């Protein structure tokens, strides 16, 4: 399988944990890019760090690498390959997927290390 092209998004992200019954702040819903996941136990929101969210816990200083898509559902191993490259370089990740593509969040302090490892493995980075 050929290597995908990755694009580093400009903004910094924060991962928030909220109570499962909390409402999603309107500022999040009005933002250009955000991710929401809800279970019986929690509500998780990933959004630009400049958006104020009153959360139970938050982890800031994440950057996002977008796998340039759209990716077909028949493709296999994309995230396994990328996460394997980053794991070998001791880069911790947080992954997200949409209908069209995948996102790999990496701490700001490790983004250059991550990008170098991916380039060395044959990925094109924009």
Characterise the protein shown here.
It contains three helices and eight strands, in the order E-E-H-E-E-E-H-E-E-H-E. It is an alpha+beta fold and 126 residues long. It has a single domain, classed as VC0802-like.
Lay out the secondary structure.
Blueprint: E1 5-8, E2 13-18, H1 26-29, E3 34-38, E4 43-48, E5 57-67, H2 78-88, E6 93-97, E7 102-107, H3 111-120, E8 124-125
Parallel strand pairs: 1-8
Antiparallel strand pairs: 1-5, 2-4, 2-5, 3-4, 5-7, 6-7
Pfam families: A9CJY8-like_N, ACT_7
Protein name: Aspartate kinase
InterPro entries: A9CJY8-like_N, ACT-like_dom_sf, CASTOR_ACT_dom, CASTOR_mTORC1, UCP008459
pLDDT under 50 segments (min length 5)?
Answer: none
The protein's oligomeric status is: single chain
User: Alpha-carbon distance between the termini?
Assistant: 20 Å
**Overall mean pLDDT score?**
91
> What is the overall number of helices?
3
List the defining traits of the structure above.
126 residues, UCP008459, 20% helix, 3 helices, eight-stranded mixed beta sheet, 36% strand, alpha+beta, VC0802-like, 8 strands
Please summarize what this structure is.
This is Aspartate kinase. This protein is an alpha+beta fold and 126 residues long.
